[in-house]
Design brief:
alpha/beta; Rossmann fold; seven-stranded parallel sheet; two-stranded parallel sheet
C-alpha cells in the first residue's frame, strides 16, 4: 500500500483516480482548491491559493506521501480571455507544478506522476501514431506549457533524485465530461444535424477509468520511474463513428451530413473556428505500446463500455 497525494482531485480524472486508489487500499489524500473529491475514505486537504503559492508552508505535518499525482492544471479552452494566455498557462502549469513537486519531495515523496497531454507533442499525427520518441512540437499555449512543465520536471529529477513519470493522455471522456465532448452529446440529444458524415480521420481517446487505472500502475510500479507514457483506449474512432455509438447509447437518432473535410476546414477558417475544425477532421492517433510493454498494462474497459457509461450519466442528468 502506498500513500498518495492527488492534486486536482475534484476534477474529471481526479475523482476517478481517488476512487481507484482507495479501492485498492492505498492511503489517498485529495488536494483541492474548492469543492471535494466525493470519495469515501479519502482525506481532503483544501489549499485555495492560486498556482500552489504557499503550498510548502501550508503542508500538514502528518502528510508524508510516497508519491504525488499532479492532475491540477489550467486547461485548454476554446476562447481564452486572459491578457497573456501563455503567461497564465505557464504560471499554473509550469511554476505551479514545480511548487507541488518541490514541496512533496521535501515531505518525503519519492515520485511524481505528472499528467501532461498529447498536446505537448502535436495537434495531428502526421500519418503515424504518435509514440513517446516523437520530437514534441506543441502549438498552443496549453500544449507549450505542458511541454515546458515536462522539461522542468525532468531537470528537477536529475538534480534531486525525484522519480518522474510523465503521462500524456489524448481526449479524456467519461461521466462528468465537459468541453467539446459534452457539446457533441448536447447536439445529439437535441437531434441537431452534424456535418461529420464524411470525416474518416481517427483520433485516440481514453476513458477516465482506463486512465485512472494506468495512473495507479505508474504510482506503484518501479519500472515506471523516469519514463514518459502515452495512454489510450484500445480502439481509435473517427468522429462519425463516435457520434453514431454515442447516439445509440443515448437512444437518439444520429443525423450526419456528408460534408467534405476540406470544406469543413474552410468554413472553420471563415468563422474563427479553424483550430476546432482541424481537431475534428484530422487524424490524431497515439501509440500506447510502451506502457503495454514496460508495465504490462492494458485498458480494463473497452471503448464501448466507456461511451455507454458516459451516455448513461448524460441521460441521468438531462
Amino acid at each position: 500500500m502506498s500513500s498518495v497525494l492527488v492534486t486536482g482531485a475534484s476534477g474529471l480524472v481526479g475523482r476517478a483516480l481517488c476512487a481507484t486508489l482507495a479501492r485498492h487500499d492505498h492511503d489517498v489524500t485529495a488536494l483541492v482548491r474548492r469543492g471535494n473529491a466525493s470519495v469515501a475514505t479519502v482525506r481532503e486537504w483544501h489549499h485555495e491559493a492560486a498556482d500552489f503559492v504557499g503550498l510548502h508552508e501550508a503542508w500538514p505535518d502528518d502528510l508524508t506521501p510516497d508519491c504525488v499525482v499532479h492532475l491540477a492544471a489550467r486547461v485548454h479552452v476554446m476562447h481564452d480571455d486572459a491578457p497573456d494566455p501563455l503567461a497564465a498557462f505557464h504560471a499554473t502549469n509550469v511554476e505551479g507544478t514545480l511548487r507541488v513537486a518541490r514541496a512533496a519531495q521535501a515531505r518525503g515523496a519519492r515520485r511524481i506522476v505528472f499528467v501532461s497531454s498529447i498536446k505537448a507533442v502535436a495537434e495531428v499525427d502526421g500519418g503515424l501514431p504518435l509514440a513517446e520518441s516523437v520530437q514534441p512540437a506543441p502549438r498552443d499555449p496549453y500544449g507549450l506549457s505542458k511541454r515546458a512543465a515536462e522539461e522542468a520536471l525532468w531537470c528537477l529529477g536529475e538534480e534531486t533524485g525525484l522519480e518522474v513519470v510523465v503521462v500524456r493522455p489524448p481526449l479524456v471522456y467519461g461521466p462528468g465530461v465537459g468541453a467539446n465532448f459534452l457539446q457533441m452529446m448536447d447536439a445529439l440529444w437535441r437531434g441537431v444535424p452534424l456535418p461529420f458524415g464524411s470525416v474518416n480521420a481517427r483520433r485516440s481517446l481514453v476513458y477516465t477509468e482506463n486512465l485512472a487505472d494506468a495512473l495507479m500502475h505508474c504510482v506503484t510500479d518501479w519500472r515506471a520511474a523516469n519514463t514518459c507514457f502515452h495512454v489510450t483506449d484500445a480502439e481509435d474512432l473517427s468522429v462519425a463513428q463516435m457520434l453514431r455509438r454515442l447516439g445509440h447509447h443515448l437512444s437518439k437518432p444520429v443525423r450526419l451530413i456528408p460534408v467534405p473535410p476540406g470544406l469543413l476546414r474552410a468554413a472553420g477558417a471563415l468563422t474563427g473556428r479553424a483550430a476546432q475544425m482541424e481537431r475534428l477532421t484530422s487524424s490524431l492517433q497515439v501509440d500506447a505500446s510502451l506502457i503495454h510493454e514496460r508495465l504490462g498494462w492494458r485498458p480494463p474497459f473497452a471503448v464501448e463500455a466507456g461511451l455507454e457509461a458516459t451516455a448513461r450519466w448524460y441521460c441521468a442528468t438531462h
